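agent: user wants the full assembly modeled, not chains individually. Plan: 1) parse entity lines 2) check alphabet per entity 3) run joint structure prediction 4) return tokens. Steps 1-2 passed, two entities, 694 residues total. Proceeding.
--- entities ---
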Amino acid sequence: MPHILVIEDDEITAREITLELAAHGITTERVHDGAQGFQRALEPHFDAITLDLMLPGMDGLTLVTQLRERGIATPVLMISALGDVDERVRGLRAGGDDYLTKPFAPDEMAARIEVLLRRQRQEQPAQTKLRVADLELDMISRTARRGSRELTLLPTEYRLLEFLMRYPGQVLTRAMIFESVWGLRFDPGTNLIDVHIARLRRKVDNEGEASLIRTMRGSGYRLG
Amino acid sequence: MANATARNLSIHWRATTSRLLLAYGVFFVIWGMVLLGFIYWETLHYLETRTDMQLKQQVAYLRSLNQEHLLVALNDYVILERTNYNAWGLFDAKQHWQYGDVLQFPAGLKIDSDSVRLPTEQVIAGPLAPPTPRLSVIAAHLPNGQILVLAHTTRIAARVGNIISHAVWWGVSFTLVPGLIGGLILNRGPRRRIRQIESATQPIMRGDLRQRLPVSHRGDELDRLAAIVNGMLDQIERLMGEVKGVCDNIAHDLRTPLTRLRSQLYRVQQELSEEDPHTAMIERCAADVDEVLARFRALLRISELEDRRRREGFVDVDLGQTLERVHELYAPLAEDQQLQFELQAEAGLIVQADPDLLFEALGNLVGNAIKFTPAGGRVALSVQQSGPGTAHIEVADNGPGIPEEQRHAVWQRFYRGDGSRDASGHGLGLSIVAAIAKLHDFELRIEGDGAGARMVMECALRAQDSPALA
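--- prediction returned ---
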């Protein structure tokens, strides 16, 4: 069971994070201030950290910088009230793995934590093939097949499928898809991602086959 | 060239100083002429009265002389009085000529009456005639029955006329010529300042309310006017700031409870089974809350972009490649709406920009075009070099277009054209585009005549990227 360190001085936010993660079967430990948070973060038994950037004791940016300097690679989800693009870039540059602006939807936060956890687990062996059910993606030849059927994918569709296949069984929100596949972080309107998914779905699912890409009500998509 | 001169003149003429000066000049000339005319007229009148008196006295004297003396006296008189012109004639009782230069009794002349002024040619003709047009003439019976005619003109009157006409000419030229030149010089100052004010208002009209009109230390009318306008701008800026602040605060403060509401709805949604009749309702509620949150995010984003003055984070961006990525992202959406979506991108156009923001702006323009173009229509995305150092990005569609009078307003927050009420969207997309364009100093405008809209973004190319290198 994944274990998460929550460094957050705001009570309500901390409770929200704890409750939501508990609903996803993730246990948490909570710390109120930066200096204490830093000490705990040095301990090896956390799978990920949620880090508020404005903390008493030691601010989040310094914390994550010093953590990385000491070679601690625990994934960090930074949470900030500042939505500024530059703020986000600074946070990621300092060594954060993802960035979320307050107020956030708890399911979005949980989805991001789960992606961080899975990325952590995947990192060890360099994979060349991804497999989900009868779907197979060859990352060297950049081809995809479902069962015996070869899928002809456009470059964008390939990247989208690859992202979905990296996190099977995991809810991916539209914002996460847009960020990861296109590297963009603005509001493109709700149906733009849906249209792309629908296209990919038409290629992946033949008639009669079970749909592999599932729409999760109210949050996003899930493969498998 | 001639046109420019004409325009220049017309600008000069329209200036207040020029007009005042010219009006004053005309008034001065007219008044001066009236005055001089009056003096001239009075002088002439006086001289004529003098002449009449003189003639009467002379006639009275000459009548008292006998025949021999008379002729001598008349000749002497003509010779002695050189400064004026004199002529005489002696006629018998039947008005037949006897002696003198006046060879014919002037028609219409009354005998033994006051002197009258007659045209010169009626009195005396030929080389002896004086250069004046009129002569004062008097006729009288001598005691022996002869008729004596004396003609007189004073050159003084002509001289006075000359002096006065000279005075008029000199006066006019001394008044009008330096006056006009002075006027042009005086005009230059105010015109230069009007130009300064004009250039200061350009950014204000484009929406940069931080600019102010220049105020000099002179404190003249223009300064007072500029100060009034500046005061007005202060107030407008303050009010705009307040409105924006209130909007931002509402958006900011409501985000937290709305996000909570959204997560409650999400939890309820997770707990309900697919078959539950409430599922659809909850889903609609969640979608509505999402919509509101998206709107607030957009509002705060515009504020964030507008407050950003720094241009750090700007890098070289290839416009063609950016357009290709935008095209790739939006192509499925266009296809879904059965639109033809074309891309025409010139290679090698590099600008200094924030790549993500530029993408966002172009994405918004394209998304907007796709949204408002009916099925079967066409959206075209293109970039080309339009001149030395500028690239011309265009998003053209053949949808309903944007009426001329709305073209300025669409960039403002929450503006939605009349034709767009049925389409979804929060009306903030174009405001975001405007804020991004402003941050980059790119020029945005809307073109198109009836058949569709063309959103144009003019970008300054990277400095060293001159066409000679391409």
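agent: reporting back. Chain B has three domains: 1-201, 221-307, 315-460. Residues 419-424, 465-470 of chain B have pLDDT under 50 and may be disordered.
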